[in-house]
Design brief:
The complex is a heterodimer of chains A (263) and B (240). Chain A is α+β, with helices and mostly antiparallel strands and 263 residues long. Chain A contains 8 helices and 10 strands. Chain A has one domain. In chain A, 45% of the residues lie in helices and 17% in strands. In chain A, helix 3 crosses helix 5 and helix 6 packs parallel to helix 8. Chain A starts with a helix and ends in a 10-residue tail after the last helix. With 240 residues, chain B is an alpha+beta fold. Chain B folds into 2 domains: 72 residues, no CATH class; 133 residues, no CATH class. In chain B, strands 5, 6, 7, 8, 9, 10 and 11 form a 7-stranded mixed β-sheet that branches. Chain B has a 4-stranded antiparallel β-sheet with strand order 1-2-3-4, with no helix packed on it. Chain B starts with 17 loop residues before the first strand and ends with a helix. About 15% of the residues of chain B have low confidence. At the A-B interface, helix 1, strand 2, strand 4, strand 7 and strand 8 of A face helix 2, strand 9 and helix 5 of B.
């Protein structure tokens, strides 16, 4: 059954309102993350994060803030249209710098995103020659560990979409439902997650919400690439902390904004 | 196209490639293809993969499977090992940054938030955002040029399942059209992939050897220099 015209226009109005609120909150959270020297970003393990941290290390706080502002604007163009903001020439310049840094070295005149190898905490080696390497981790144990960590934060309702490697939690925030969906079966990374905002009738109003997305660093799925089993515990704990942070904040930025009950 | 009507000659026939009636061969940019024998006129410069004997054959066209595969540039290396994965991951990251979409290990069940037949399928790229104002969601499949037809079939299947079971999601799903993929994806210091922009939800890539490309560039430069010198010498000779 397709949506009626009335429901459709109510749904779109909800999407616009959410986009605006979410967008304003993202700036606030990007500022917090920058001022505290990226505590959540540092706990995510993937190549984009390693490159980003390497890039911002020599920057002063002012420059970091300008970069984060530009990145948040870049990844939320849908939101920008509703808050009458634009990407300035300076923003564009900063975004370009980030992309060039993220994409990496020049090989034979072509930009190559070769693996970043760092000592200590962020040491990571994925590509050797022409092959892509991902450390072997017990995925079932990883999945169980994530469920255990997220249950008190995102629960109580746990479900799956017909796959053992893909599960979700549902939390109620006012009339809204916020899902926390995670997957542990990818051949590209060890696990990833995102949130979704749903109306009482199950229509999606916000999709692909995760740390990397709201900070403008990457896409909708924030993902972890681990080096070995010893990193599982910290990674799972980081996921729990990031989800708890978002759910707490969402309760605040959704205040006074409820979906129509019949939607 | 294998047949045409009318008087205007159409030289773009098999796999959309240009046919050279004088040589009775198809020109695939790097090599001429003889469709009668199903073989290229000159050897493939790709060394091949030991584990796949067909890839070692120097004259075979698209792994001897022209029904399912095409080789538009004549230099494409078969999608072996992890190259495909590297290309997919690179495009996926770019896609996520540009559209806020999801993919790679997200099933149709996850998109629809239910469990439906064929819901375990995983479209490579899923974009519910870009055209959401128009009530449209888009899906894409990334494949080697060797598997373009399979990719087209997969996209149609994804769209059918999403539209059939997702009728109350408020979105009509179509093969993707709005995303612009990066034209070149670096794979390693020895290989790059050229990306064909999405067409009806299908993004194809062609892996080529960088050293070979470099040699071509040098050869092309040398040829241009030789032509310049020759024409300069001729001009000087006539002027004198």
């Amino acid at each position: 059954m397709r949506l009626t015209n009335r429901r459709e226009s109510e749904w779109k109005a909800c999407q616009r309102e959410f986009a605006e609120r979410y967008h304003r909150w993202k700036f606030k959270d990007a500022r917090r993350e920058t001022e505290e020297a990226f505590p959540f970003v540092r706990r995510v393990r993937n190549q984009t994060v390693y490159r980003f941290l390497e890039m911002v290390e020599p920057m002063g706080e002012d420059e970091r803030l300008r970069l984060m502002t530009a990145l948040v604007k870049r990844s939320h163009r849908f939101g920008l249209a509703h808050v009458a903001e634009t990407i300035t020439a300076e923003d564009q310049c900063l975004i370009q710098r980030f992309l060039e840094y993220d994409h990496g070295e020049i090989v034979h005149g072509i930009t190559a995103r070769l693996p970043i190898v760092r000592d200590g905490e962020h040491k990571q080696m994925r590509m050797e020659g022409d092959s892509l390497k991902l450390a072997k981790i017990d995925r079932r144990a990883l999945h169980r560990a994530i469920i255990t960590r997220l249950k008190p934060v995102c629960g109580p309702k746990l479900g799956d979409f017909g796959s053992r490697s893909s599960s979700y939690f549902e939390s109620a925030v006012g009339l809204w439902t916020i899902t926390t969906e995670f997957r542990t079966g990818s051949k590209f990374w060890h696990f990833d997650y995102f949130h979704r905002l749903l109306t009482p009738g199950g229509l999606t109003v916000g999709f692909g919400i995760s740390l990397m997305h709201w900070l403008g660093l990457g896409g909708s799925q924030t993902r972890w690439e681990l080096e070995d089993e010893s990193q599982v515990e910290d990674a799972v704990d980081a996921l729990g902390a990031i989800c708890a942070h978002f759910l707490r904040e969402a309760t605040l930025f959704l205040q006074g904004f409820d979906p129509p009950k019949n939607l | 196209m294998i047949h045409s009507t009318g008087t205007t000659p159409n030289n773009y026939l098999f796999a959309g490639e240009q046919f050279d009636p004088d040589l009775n061969l198809y020109y695939n940019r790097a090599r001429y293809l003889n469709v009668t024998t199903g073989r290229f006129w000159i050897m493939d410069s790709y060394e091949g993969n030991d584990e796949d004997p067909r890839s070692i054959h120097k004259y075979l066209y698209v792994d001897a499977d022209p029904v399912n595969n095409t080789d538009p540039c004549g230099r494409c290396l078969p999608s072996i090992g992890d190259w495909g994965d590297i290309v997919q991951e690179f495009i996926f990251e770019d896609f996520q940054e540009k559209t806020g979409g999801v993919g790679l290990n997200v099933t149709i069940n996850t998109v629809l938030r239910s469990t439906v037949p064929s819901g375990g399928l995983e479209p490579d790229l899923i974009d519910p955002n870009t055209l959401s104002e128009f009530g449209i969601g888009q899906v894409y499949e990334i494949k080697s040029v060797y598997s373009e037809l399979q990719a087209k079939a997969k996209v149609l299947l994804y769209v059918s399942v999403l539209n059939f079971y997702g009728r109350n999601t408020g979105l009509k799903w179509i093969p993707g059209v709005t995303y612009t993929a990066p034209p070149i994806v670096p794979i390693s210091p020895s290989a790059v992939a050229f990306i064909q922009q999405p067409w009806a939800g299908v993004i194809t890539y062609c892996v080529v050897n960088q050293t070979e490309l470099l040699a071509f560039a040098i050869a092309a430069d040398s040829a241009a220099l030789y032509l310049d010198l020759s024409s300069a010498a001729l001009t000087a000779a006539y002027a004198y």
